[in-house]
C-alpha cells in the first residue's frame, strides 16, 4: 500500500496567533503540512500560539517561506487552491487530491487582489447565508475545507 501524500495548509502572512495555533493542531491531527508565509504578525514563540496548539507542536510539520512569490514558484499550479470571500464559487465545487495546497490569506485583508485575479479559476469561498457576516474565522474555514478535501480522498479510495 502506498503512502498517501499529505494535504498542505498555507497561511499567507497570518496575523492572529490562536488561529495559527489551532490550524497547526488541525494539521497535526490530519498529518497535513502547515506552510507559513512571512512576514508573520507574531513570533512563533508567542504564548497564545503555543497554547492554541497545546502540546502537539512536535507532531506538526511546518515549512516557512520568506515570500508568497517564493512559495508559488516552488509549486505546481494545478495543486493550488485559493480561498477568499471575494468570489462566489463554493469550495464544494473544487476537486481536491492528496498533495494539494489549500491557501488562505491574512485575517484582516485576505489574499492579495493580484493573486485572486491571476488565479481566479482556482479561487473558492465558503458560502454564508447572512449578508451581515463578512467572513468566518480562519481556523474554522481551514478546518471545513481540509475535511472536505479528506472526505473527497476517502470517497475516491472507496470507489477505486
- The H-level CATH homologous superfamily, spelled out, is SPOUT methyltransferase, trefoil knot domain
Mean pLDDT: 91
Distance from N terminus to C terminus (CA atoms, Å) equals: 13 Å
> Any low-confidence stretches, pLDDT <50, length ≥5?
none
Secondary structure class reads: alpha/beta
CATH fold title:
Alpha/beta knot
Provide the fold topology.
Elements: E1 8-12, H1 17-30, E2 33-37, H2 47-53, E3 61-65, H3 68-73, E4 80-83, E5 101-104, H4 113-118, E6 123-124, H5 138-159
Parallel strand pairs: 1-2, 1-5, 2-3, 4-5, 4-6
Short description:
With 160 residues, this protein is an alpha/beta fold. It starts with 7 loop residues before the first strand and ends with a helix.
If you had to describe this structure to a student in words, what would you say it looks like?
With 160 residues, this protein is an alpha/beta fold. The protein has one domain: SPOUT methyltransferase, trefoil knot domain (Alpha/beta knot, 3-Layer(aba) Sandwich). It has five helices and six strands. It has helices spanning 17-30, 47-53, 68-73, 113-118, 138-159; strands at 8-12, 33-37, 61-65, 80-83, 101-104, 123-124. The chain has a six-stranded parallel β-sheet with strand order 3-2-1-5-4-6. It is globular. The two termini are 13 Å apart. The model has no long low-confidence stretch (mean pLDDT 91).
